[in-house]
Design goal:
The protein has 351 residues and is α/β, with parallel strands linked by helices. The protein has a single domain, classed as Alpha-Beta Barrel (TIM Barrel), CATH 3.20.20.70. It contains 13 helices and ten strands. The strands form two sheets. Strands 1-2-3-6-7-8-9-10 form an eight-stranded parallel beta barrel, surrounded by seven helices. Strands 4-5 form a two-stranded antiparallel ribbon. Helix 11 runs antiparallel to helix 12. The longest helix is centred in the middle third of the chain and has 21 residues. The protein starts with a helix and ends with a helix. Bound molecules: 1,3-dihydroxyacetonephosphate. 1,3-dihydroxyacetonephosphate binds next to helix 11.
């Protein structure tokens, strides 16, 4: 286990004012997202779209790392440079999603466990050679009547810890993601309770399996009311509950926490991250690892038309810059309208 290399990777991933771009949607998820914009989904359209994101000029100012999918890490820019090599060349750390998706948990209706441990040791070796320096594994926790059960939480924590140990053995930094889903009518209090239980179980299991906390990144969901809840909590409450929950559950030795956007609107994901960072006093940097909240506007703008590529890149860069400001607690709704020139002025004034 090369702790020095993993330490270097971690420091690059959580560099101040930066976060991760999750571009690791499986072919199936891509199909759904592309279909919503009437974009044909082929290996080549997926490659073209990912190239548009990765080559957006200056994306490395706000993005420290990119999570790739198995197909994507094998793909190249139109000039023939493998994506992982291209990203590393701009100082962006390449990462890889290694789980094989959440599957129904036998005998536990409505609950899921993530698969993908078989053969993982060999796959990690291959991904390391392809340039990946961190990995991601997503567990899914549903909230509903009588769920999640302790069995589901523990089964997912156990798999996350086995994955994390294998990653560290291969000198790859594991991103552990126990996602508590937004879907449902539950209150913010219920989300808090479930998130705390999931994180408590995860960190116990990581300790049992001798995973080094100093070389793990937590990808957390924010503590939110369900998307169908009657009275949804506002931004200040979400920020307070999220920070409280993390402080009570996450060891201070962890190098960083990144959030998923989880189906929040772009603005909610940004406003919540900003409010979380304004609270201050957390022992770890709190930044983003968004897929939808960084990409939705770009995908809509691109719509599969090569003539829209430049404006799609601008739409992506805009969201990345707003998330970057939010990771510093320096975002404000008025900044949504600023040009890239003004963005750099804001950064200079604030530094
Ligand atoms: P969202 O930001 O769209 O939730 O995706 C993040 C992610 O990578 C989920 O695993």
């Amino acid at each position: 286990m090369d702790k020095e290399l993993m330490g270097k990777t971690v420091r690059a991933m959580i560099a101040k004012g930066k976060g991760l771009l999750a571009a690791d949607e499986s072919a199936g998820t891509c199909e759904k997202r592309f279909a919503s914009q009437n974009i044909p989904c082929t290996e080549e359209t997926r490659r073209t779209y990912r190239e548009l994101l990765f080559t957006a000029p200056g994306m490395e100012e706000s993005i420290s790392g990119v999570i790739l999918f198995d197909e994507t890490i094998r793909q190249k820019t139109h000039d023939g440079i493998p994506f992982a090599e291209y990203l590393a060349g701009k100082g962006v750390v390449p990462g890889i999603k290694v789980d094989k998706g959440a599957k129904a948990l036998a005998f536990f209706p409505g609950e899921q466990v993530t698969e993908g441990l078989d053969g993982l040791r060999d796959r990690l070796k291959e991904y390391f050679q392809a340039g990946a320096r961190f990995a991601k594994w997503r567990a899914v926790i549903n909230i509903g009547s009588g769920i999640p059960t302790e069995t589901c939480i523990n089964a997912n924590s156990h798999a996350l810890a086995r994955y994390a140990a294998l990653c560290q053995e291969a000198d790859i930094v594991p991103v552990v993601e126990p996602e508590v889903l937004l879907d449902g009518e539950h209150s913010i209090e219920r989300c808090y309770e479930v998130t705390e239980a999931a994180l408590g179980s995860l960190f116990n299991e990581l300790r049992r399996q001798k995973v080094s906390n100093e070389h793990v990144i937590l990808k957390a969901s924010m503590v939110l009311s369900g998307n169908k809840a009657q009275n949804r909590a506002g931004v200040p409450q979400v920020a307070e509950e999220t920070v409280k929950c993390l402080k009570r559950s996450v060891p201070a030795t962890l190098p960083g926490v990144v959030f998923l956007s989880g189906g929040q609107t772009d603005l909610d994901a940004t406003a919540h991250l900003d409010a979380i960072n304004r609270i201050g006093g957390a022992p770890w940097p709190l930044t983003f690892s968004y897929s939808r909240a960084l990409q939705a506007a770009a995908l809509r703008t691109w719509a599969g038309n090569p003539g829209n590529a430049k404006s799609a890149q601008q739409a992506f860069l805009h969201r990345a810059r707003m998330a970057s400001l939010a990771s510093l607690g320096r975002w404000a709704p008025e900044l949504e309208k600023i040009s890239s020139y003004c963005f750099f002025l804001v950064l200079i004034i604030m530094s």
